[in-house]
Amino acid sequence: MCTERTTVGLDVHARSVVAEAVDWASGRVFGQRLVPANDVVLGWVAQLPGPVAVAYEAGPTGFGLARAFGSAGVRCEVVAPSKLQRPPGDRVKTDRRDARRLARLLHIGEICGIGIPSVIQEDARDLVRAREDARADLMRARHRLSKLLLRHGIVYYGGRAWTGLHERWLRAQRFELPGTRAAFEEAFDAVLSVSARRDRLDEAITVTAAAPQWAPIVSRLCAVRGIATLTGLGLAVEIGDWDRFTGASIGAYLGLVPSESSSGNSRSQGPITKTGNTHARRLLVEAAWHHQKPLRAPGQALAARRAALPPAVRARGEAADRRLHHRWSTLAARHKRPTVIAVAVARELAGWCWSLATLND
Question: Residue 318 is part of which domain span?
Answer without folding.
Answer: 216-357
